[in-house]
Amino acid sequence: MTGGAGFIGSHVVDAYLAQGHDVTVVDDLSTGKKKNVNPQARLVTADIRDPNLGALFAASRFEVVTHLAAQLDVRKSVQDPCFDASVNILGTLRLLECCRTYGVRKMIFSSSGGTIYGECTTRAAHEEDPPRPESPYGISKDTAERYIRYYGKVYRLPYTILRYANVYGPRQDAHGEAGVVAIFAGKLIAKERVTIYGTGQQERDYVFVSDVVQANVAALTKGENDTFNVGTGLTTSVNSLYEDLARLDKDAKKAAYAPVRPGELARSVLSVERARKHLGWEPLITLQKGLEETYNFFQQQNNSAVFKNRYTPKAITRSLYVP
Ligand SMILES: NC(=O)c1ccc[n+]([C@@H]2O[C@H](COP(=O)([O-])OP(=O)(O)OC[C@H]3O[C@@H](n4cnc5c(N)ncnc54)[C@H](O)[C@@H]3O)[C@@H](O)[C@H]2O)c1
Q1: Distance from the CA of 24 to the center of ligand 1, in angstroms?
Q2: For the chain, what percent of residues have pLDDT higher than 70?
Q3: pTM, 2 dp
Q4: Residues assigned a catalytic role
């Protein structure tokens, strides 16, 4: 598994371990955290672009590679498309070469339904719709998918591609660019005002992380050589998302509004019929329930951060033993 120290990957690691699989995590900890990695998994701190990755594959004989490591900041991909392509395209190619050389049974790839299809003006995006990415990140995910299909066809390396909508849930980075739910929850708990860019009427498909995990579990045994959207088929505006979250916080302030950010889509939503039919998967967690779990997680994290600052062993040692 690559990217297993990150938000989604760490939950997938937990689920695979719970199913009795041996899990090795390859992660360079660039955005992921060591503390996210389940101690029952083996953590190899390495870059997926490392030319020596083959040695790890040779020694470990992996059966399945679930590939989540990525550069996923859309704005960074615009500022530095070479870096984005290097991680998302060349990194994926490095893994494909290792899979081909060392007889891996399957690759499961995390792609991005939110960026590959572009605007979904009239209806939810279906898997057969032509890709119309509007950012270097969307282009690099689309390109990685094409290489995966090429390896499937030419080298008979089976794969399942999962195109996620907007994923949210515990362990998402509240300071990053990706997760509006994490950013809003973080601000609410810090008693800060939330900023909404544009009118707030832009619509997204928000899928809870445990549902995304279940798609990665289903893909271990199903959905061979196919591509699936992993979302809910439902849209929620940013305004309505904030209202739902703000209801959970008694001190919530009114959101502030700032000019729309260039390149932001007006509407993105994924049809999940194919995953229902062929993966036997469907989203189970309602937005209400998912937001509650996420908000509670950030609140607990905030409380334990305060606790740690006051009572870390270091602080106690100093006050007790330093003259
Ligand atoms: N979060 C979303 O809403 C969303 C939506 C669509 C697709 N995805 C995809 O899901 C996957 C996981 O995303 P996430 O939200 O958990 O992000 P994340 O940043 O929490 O996780 C990514 C992980 O990859 C690791 N990583 C990055 N570059 C690496 C490299 N060169 N070598 C090794 N490890 C590297 C990071 O340290 C991190 O642990 C990504 O492929 C992303 O494109 C996420």
Answers
A1: 16
A2: 93
A3: 0.94
A4: 137
